[in-house]
Amino acid sequence: MRNVASYRMRRVNEALKEVIGTALAQQLKDPRIGFVTLTGVETASDLSHAKVFVSVYGKQSEKDATLEGLRAARPYLQRLINDELSLKRTPALEFVYDGTIDQGMRIQALLYSSGSTGRSPKTSR
């Protein structure tokens, strides 16, 4: 039974990610929202709330402004989710900054500066 529930939650998470991603790309016109990437969605099993993980390209001020714009768009996005998905309850959205991409870029820069690019060495013939 646990596998069925986790499969359902994965489907709900992906559906939420798709609806929110489409709205970000095509419908939201808030100038505060910069170049944002949805990295994941985690929905509570009772559908009461969902954490939407985002990564933002730019300076810290741009990241803060984007998160503020996303929080301001929350009622619109929740209404859109309610209209497009047939869920028992529309989850309250919480936008959370996901720093894993920044960490990956920092690690890549460190590897590059040390001379190790993370690629396997070329073999000579």
Task: Characterise the protein shown here.
It is globular, with a radius of gyration of 18 Å. The longest helix is centred in the N-terminal third of the chain and has 25 residues, at 2-26. A three-stranded mixed beta sheet has the order 1-2-3, with helices on both faces. The protein has four helices and three strands, in the order αββααβα. The protein has helices at 2-26, 60-72, 74-84, 100-113; strands spanning 36-43, 49-56, 92-97. The chain is an alpha+beta fold. Helix 1 (2-26) packs across helix 3 (74-84). The model has no long low-confidence stretch (mean pLDDT 87). A hairpin with a 5-residue loop joins strand 1 (36-43) and strand 2 (49-56). The chain starts with a helix and ends in a 12-residue tail after the last helix.
